[in-house]
Design goal:
This protein is mainly alpha-helical. It has helices at about 5-20, 25-35, 40-60, 70-90, 95-115, 120-125, 125-140, 145-150, 160-180, 190-215, 215-235.
């Protein structure tokens, strides 16, 4: 196994292990490994393939807990954000936007630690945040933290929170695949290489589910906030 396949395997395994436990952060964990051996568009292509595989599995298992009205509200604005984000991915990389997202996420986490009530402003701006989530999902595959901000403000139930994140990111994946293919970012060679990684990806889903079942709700919420804060730091400092 060459270095590219090795780091691809490690990135996908660790990313989707965490994703299965928390409902988000797969791309944020996997990207540092992938970007060592490939450009950003290729990394987004690989991540999209494995999101596409995991989506029906997670959505089927968590369907009863998904907040479907919220999912519908985010769908249209997310699509337009995603479309613009992928166009930007194909023709440029505005790093200042990535750092701005990092600052916002850090401030949100710090506010969450001291505030017991929902941020009403965010609750009233679902469509705008849906657009931003789609945009950052398209250009950097890092829209998950923004969607977590929205969903977290809509529910305090960690099961609904996790399941709805699976639903939102699954919806984004279904939108993203045909656009990536049309733009030439998703290739047959990526599909071929993904076959080598597939057994490790399946193992990540199995182990992640086992770990999730052993965690209590409060600890899982702390993990989510911790990962959210870490993602903000990574977006802020990493080029």
């Amino acid at each position: 196994m060459d270095m590219m396949l090795l780091l691809l395997t490690i990135g996908i395994f660790t990313g989707f292990f965490v994703q299965t436990i928390t409902g988000f952060a797969g791309a944020l964990i996997a990207l540092p490994f992938l970007l060592f051996v490939m450009p950003l568009p290729d990394a987004i292509g690989y991540l999209s393939i494995f999101y596409f595989i995991s989506t029906p599995i997670h959505v089927y298992k968590e369907w009863n807990y998904i907040d479907k009205p919220l999912l519908k509200k985010l769908a249209l604005s997310s699509f337009f954000g995603l479309l613009i984000g992928i166009i930007v991915l194909a023709y440029g990389q505005p790093m200042i936007l990535k750092k701005a997202l990092g600052v916002f996420i850090i401030l949100f986490v710090l506010n969450s630690l001291k505030a017991k009530k929902e941020i009403q402003l965010i609750s009233k701006m679902k469509y705008f945040f849906g657009f931003l989530g789609g945009f950052f999902s398209g250009v950097f595959s890092t829209g998950g933290p923004l969607y977590l901000v929205i969903v977290k403000n809509e529910t305090s139930d960690v099961k609904i929170l996790r399941a709805t994140m699976f639903g939102v990111l699954g919806l984004i994946t279904l939108m993203r695949i045909p656009i990536l293919a049309f733009e030439g970012i998703l290739t047959v060679n990526q599909l071929y290489n993904s076959l080598y990684v597939l057994p490790f990806f399946i193992l990540a889903l199995i182990l992640g589910k086992k770990v999730y079942l052993k965690l209590n709700e409060l600890f899982l919420k702390r993990i989510m906030l911790g990962l959210l804060f870490l993602s903000g730091i990574m977006l802020l400092v990493k080029n």
